[in-house]
């Protein structure tokens, strides 16, 4: 079970308002469940959250092959025609995902995402699941 203290909508909106050309922001659990979102369609947010679970697992597998790495994924950036996708670890069992257009300032997105991750930690915990159950 995702434990959320307070509503994160205002934080997500603040990120979208601060960085022009952000289309959608999703906070998700490590197993791909949407916790919160801002912008875009809810169904897209759910599909994005599910895809992020696989992507963070793949990134962790790649990280484990890097000498001196602890094997944990911190940030994934994908550039595609028309825009960017960002996935950042947001604490134990949680991630922050951003879809942005091609005119976005990539450095500004990363910086603001890091700021948000610090703030999310005060509002969110996502305990590990065991046999499909939280805790």
In CATH, the topology is named Beta-Lactamase
Which CATH top level class fits? Answer: Alpha Beta
Strand order of the largest sheet: 3-2-6-5-4
CATH architecture: 2-Layer Sandwich
* Broad shape: globular
For the sheet with most strands, the description reads: 5 strands, antiparallel
Tell me the radius of gyration: 14 Å
Domain Roadblock/LAMTOR2: 9-100
InterPro entries: Mycobact_SerProt_Inhib_Rv3364c, Roadblock/LAMTOR2_dom
Keywords: Membrane, Transmembrane, Transmembrane helix
Protein name: Putative regulator of Ras-like GTPase activity (Roadblock/LC7/MglB family)
Keywords:
135 residues; 5-stranded antiparallel β-sheet; 9 strands; disordered N terminus; Roadblock/LAMTOR2_dom; transmembrane
SSE layout:
Elements: E1 3-4, H1 9-18, E2 22-29, E3 34-38, H2 42-63, E4 75-80, E5 83-89, E6 94-101, H3 106-121, E7 124-125, E8 129-130, E9 133-134
Antiparallel strand pairs: 1-7, 2-3, 2-6, 4-5, 5-6, 8-9
Helix pairs in contact: 1-3
Structural overview:
The chain has 135 residues and is α+β, with helices and mostly antiparallel strands. It has one domain: Beta-Lactamase. A hairpin with a 4-residue loop joins β5 and β6. α1 runs antiparallel to α3. The N terminus is likely disordered.
